[in-house]
Amino acid sequence: MAKEKVTVSVEDRLRALHQLQIIDSQVDKIRIVRGELPVEIEDLEDLIVGLKTRLEKLTNELDEVNTGLSAKQNSILDAAELVKKYEKQLKNIKNNREFSSLTKELEYKTLEIQLNEKQMAELNAKTLHKDEVINEVKVQVADKEEELAVKNKELAAIIKETEKEEKVLLKKSEKAQEVIEERILKSYTRIRSKVVNGLAVVSVDRNACGGCFNQIPPQRQLDIQMHKKVIVCEHCGRILVDSNILE
């Protein structure tokens, strides 16, 4: 069963609204202080994930290059064995046809070795480059993880320091809400969500709205000072209260 609001005067409700705004603004300040850190931490975490994904991709590419190097090395060894075999066979050639055939095979395998050696040189250059990039990314990951640890520690310290204060303020906020109508509370919350500084309740200062600074007509100022009804700024929609409402 919903808790019924205590029956109070409009003046008391306006006073409670003003108090609620002061309390909620203090809570906002606390959350702003630590509110920037979680965003920074989240960005760092995303960056680290991206770097590690890149590192994994580079490592896989390096493995492929090394596999290619091994394949080229094996091809060279196989071709070199055949070269030795053909050179030995050339010493025992009995006719020109066999000589011509073996000579072509020997030339082919020699060219194959040269091609594989050239490709190995290119692959070795790729290996060196990827090793450099991998080491750079590893350094970046280590740096960002160190930065993340510092920010997490800083956030934990801020939360520990402000958690108690925030709980006290939230209790005060709940108490102030007890004497405010549900309809007005909803309006207050809606206005707070739409304005940058979270100020839904502002006082009249130098005949102007304390939120948008537009001039308030004299008759409207008098109505505000009477504390008989809830009045909103016709320009920005904020709830207006007399600057002496808490006195």
Short description:
The protein has helices at about 10-90, 95-175, 180-195, 220-225, and strands at about 200-205, 210, 230, 240. It is mainly alpha-helical and about 250 residues long. A hairpin with a 2-residue loop joins β1 (about 200-205) and β2.
What does it look like?
This protein has 247 residues and is mainly α. The chain is built from 4 helices and 4 strands. Strand 1 and strand 2 (208-209) form a beta hairpin.
List the helices and strands and how they pair.
Layout: H1 10-90, H2 96-177, H3 182-194, E1 201-205, E2 208-209, H4 218-226, E3 231-232, E4 239-241
Parallel strand pairs: 1-4
Antiparallel strand pairs: 1-2, 3-4
Helix pairs in contact: 1-2
Number of E-state strands: 4
Count of helical regions: 4
Helix content: over 70%
| Mean residue pLDDT | 90
Amino-to-carboxy terminus distance: 35 Å
Main sheet strand line-up: 2-1-4-3
- Low-confidence residue ranges: 1-6
> SSE string, helix = H, strand = E?
HHHEEHEE
**Structural class label:** mainly alpha
Strand content: under 5%
The geometry reads as rod-shaped
Radius of gyration (CA) equals 39 Å
Largest sheet: 4 strands, mixed
